[in-house]
Amino acid sequence: MNSRAYLSIGAIVAVGIVSGLWWIAADSNAPAPPAARPGTVQANAGAVPGDLRVDGKQAAQLGIRLAPAVAVEDAPLATVPAVIQPPANARVAVAATFPGVVMRTLVVEGDTVRQGQPLAVISSREVLMMGADLTRANARLGVARSNAARLSQLSREGIIAGARADEASAMAVETSADVSEKARILRMVNGHGASGSYTLTAPIAGRVTTASIQAGGSVDGTTAPYVIDAANRYEVLGQLPERLVGLVHPGMTVRIDPDIRGRVTAVGSTIDPATRSASVKAEIAAGPGIVAGRATSLSIAGPAPAGAVGVPAAAVATVNNRTVVFVATTGGFAMRDVEISGTGGGQAVLLSGVKPGEQVVIAGTSALKALALSR
After folding, report:
1. CATH class of the structural domain 94-229
2. Which end of the chain has fewer CB atoms surrounding its CB within 10 Å, N or C?
3. What is d(CA 230, CA 204) in angstroms, rounded to the nearest whole number?
4. What CATH number should be reported for the domain whose range is 76-89+230-302?
5. Sign of the C-alpha dihedral, residues 99, 105, 106, 112?
6. What is the model's pTM?
7. What is the per-residue pLDDT across 204-235, written as a single tens digit (0 to 9) for each?
8. What are the extents of the domains in the chain?
9. pLDDT, tens digit (0-9, with 9 covering 90-100), for 129-171
10. TM segments (predicted)?
11. CA distance 245 to 243
């Protein structure tokens, strides 16, 4: 082969090498596929159908917070208008036993008092006279007892008849009873015979709802200058719609904001023709905002069906006319259809869709809802 042939072959090989290098360089410089932007949630690649893939970092950026679903025994049945009032046996009038002049008042309307706490000091001529009578009765008792003892000794010695000793003993007993009675009356009214005054005290612990008394004024012994309502329990009187009569019965749980709970004690059996409602009465404990005369809303709950759970009301969302709750799963969240039994006190009771112990989304539901709608 001559030199010209060798040169031709060398030129062809060189062109092939250069073309290969150019192709490799061109392929390595080709633009890479765009990477997912930080903070975005890709479509459910590899996810179980119905799950939204969201990792921990993305969940924090979306402001997602969780709370557990808990098993419940009661489910909200209805919320009715009601008025708070003291029970009939929990209101006590404090009467001025004897007429007199008010020397000093120690509490005013609205004050909370304990049992036995002084309320007012009253000067009374009757108390002064009773104190003097008690002093005289004590003196007579001393004489009667001495006389009875002396005559009893004479009777034992046979000097006098036994009847005279018996009469003296009876007189001493009678005088002793007189002393005991006068002393009991003074104790009952917290009277001080020496000063001629007595003290009104609170018979129960509670709140002073009426205080029609002032220093320098008079009391006549037939009025009640103070009225005290027991502070440890109240009664709620509500209007039960006609459709619920027969469904609500004594023993059911009731609740008043902020989470004051009690029990139904009575349900009326007569429908008011004007309001088409019956009365429902419940007893509740004292608490913040529980004041006699206040209008409020009374939530009534009945036994919850088996498997019912309670979740914060903020966990419930609506997606395409579906009532749903977002439940935490491995690597994301599942959108569950749920059936609501009722809501009350910031809690929703679910009959299906969520099991006790599962973590539900209570904040960030709007972001998950938008993500679900974009799929």
Report:
1. mainly beta
2. N
3. 7
4. 2.40.30.170
5. positive
6. 0.48
7. 888 888 888 888 888 887 788 998 887 777 88
8. 51-73+306-373, 76-89+230-302, 94-229
9. 888 888 888 899 899 899 889 888 888 888 888 888 888 899 9
10. 5-25
11. 6
